[in-house]
Design brief:
Maltoporin, Chain A; Beta-barrel porin 2; signal
């Protein structure tokens, strides 16, 4: 069976202050929240699945709670599927892949507070292909991973010349049943603070500081600090420039060996508005214990009546090697009942051990409402990691999914589908998974 996972990656600290204008939608979203949104929705069902020749009974349980006013939003989502006779579980009746998330957001005209707490547990084969983990390495391994995370963000001074942002985040990942020694349990704590100043109506400057700490059970620890300054400037009516210059310090213990990196980091972004969409240019340079990585991109967005298209092309430099990078996304609504989405990206990533890789990600999906009561959807995703430093193997994995749903009387719904996964690593090792399922769900709504 395909197994894919790599520890939370990106630079040791990826929560980068991108400007107060990016963070202020916290307040706007709270003010614009729909008070008439449904209060509680519960979905239960019974499904039969055939996976690799084994017949499995699945009882999905999904709970959604949402309470909203113009000033605040409280939202809770829980998914807890129960499995019967699953050969991968230790008992006959077991909890499958539980997931839960709590979100609280409160906003005012000049400030916003957001808190989020989440938990999820799943097989490693679904960690990369069915979750948005674009910065993880693809590896083939068995077992499961449980992730608990929390985040707190506070923004103030949104309508004044002096403002700021304060953020804290925590992540715990626990692995079980794995054979890869690099998949060790670890905890990451990070925080950031930024102060924004507006000396003129066309310039918004910022002073920032960031820190991250990762502690692994195997003794491999990582420390990262970053501090600097930046500014967002309106060059003219059509052009905006954002520049950030910082000092980065990284200390990492890998199997008892101390690895360090220190130096300046530069980020530059330029956008120019055009009638059909924006042009953009970005430049980044970041130090790392395995070498400095530099990225350069040119992008274009097109917003037409029939479809949206955006793309970036560029080059990344690592250890004097140049590799092309790109990102393309496409979305089109053929009619009110059908739409298609597709994306293609290739980018350099760094994990907590300082290992570097080039990740390629291809995804496409199509959905169509066949009638007033039935819908069909298909999706495909391909992921590949080309390792540039470290002892990991190159690996690639592809998945295909087909889902069908049909509304039945009495708030019942018929669901059916199939999932196929194929994977292979640099040593030629292959892992496959096939699942076909059929079932009936029913939804209950309360407190509307």
């Amino acid at each position: 069976m395909t197994r894919a996972a790599r520890r939370r990656s990106g630079r040791p600290f990826r929560t980068v202050v991108a400007g107060l204008a990016v963070l202020l939608p916290l307040a706007a979203a709270a003010q614009d929240a729909d008070p008439s949104a449904p209060g509680v929705q519960l979905t239960v069902g019974q499904q039969l699945a055939v996976e690799d020749g084994d017949l499995i009974g699945i009882t999905p349980l999904d709970l959604s709670i949402r309470r909203a006013t113009r000033a605040q939003v409280l939202q809770f989502n829980l998914s807890a599927p129960f499995h019967l006779n699953d050969p991968e579980e230790d008992s006959t009746f077991a909890l499958g892949d539980p997931q839960g998330r709590l979100l609280f957001r409160r906003g005012a005209r000049n400030a916003a507070l957001e808190f989020e707490l989440g938990y999820r547990e799943n097989d490693l084969d679904r960690e990369i292909l069915f979750d948005d983990l674009s910065n993880e390495f693809v590896t083939l391994d068995g077992g499961r991973v449980a992730q608990t995370d929390a985040r707190l963000t506070y923004v103030f001074g949104s309508q004044s010349k002096l403002g700021g942002e304060f953020g804290l985040s925590w992540l715990q990942r626990d692995y079980s049943g794995t054979t890869d020694p690099d998949l060790d349990d670890h905890e990451t704590r990070s925080g950031n603070i930024a102060v924004y100043l507006e000396p003129t109506p066309l310039i918004r400057a910022r002073i920032l500081a960031e820190a991250s700490r990762t502690d692994g059970d195997d003794g491999n620890d990582s420390r990262s600090n970053r501090y600097g300054a930046g500014a967002s400037m309106q060059v003219d009516k059509l052009t905006n420039l954002d520049v950030e210059l910082a000092r980065t310090n990284i200390r990492r213990f890998d199997e008892g060996v101390l690895e360090t990196a220190e130096g300046p980091s530069l980020r530059l972004g330029l956008t120019r508005a055009r009638p059909l969409g924006d042009w953009s240019l970005s430049l980044g340079s970041e130090p790392g214990t395995a070498g400095r990585r530099e990225d350069f991109n040119i992008g274009r967005n097109l917003e037409l009546r029939r479809f949206d298209l955006s793309g970036q092309v560029g080059v990344t430099r690592f250890r004097d090697n140049y590799d092309p990078i790109f990102q393309i996304s496409y979305r089109q609504e053929f009619s009110r009942v059908s739409q298609v989405q597709a994306s293609l990206s290739r980018a350099g990533v760094t994990d907590d051990d300082g290992d570097e890789a080039l990740n390629t990600d291809v995804a496409a999906s199509y959905s169509r409402q066949i009638s007033d009561v039935s819908t069909i959807a298909a999706n495909i995703r391909y992921r590949e990691s080309e390792v540039q430093s470290g002892d990991n193997q190159d690996a690639r994995s592809v998945s295909f999914g087909l889902d069908y749903s049909r509304a039945l009387p009495g708030d019942f719904a018929l669901v059916a589908g199939a999932n196929i996964i194929r994977s292979k690593d640099g040593d030629g090792e292959r892992d496959d998974e096939d699942r076909v399922y059929l079932g009936v769900n029913r939804s209950f709504s309360f407190l509307r």
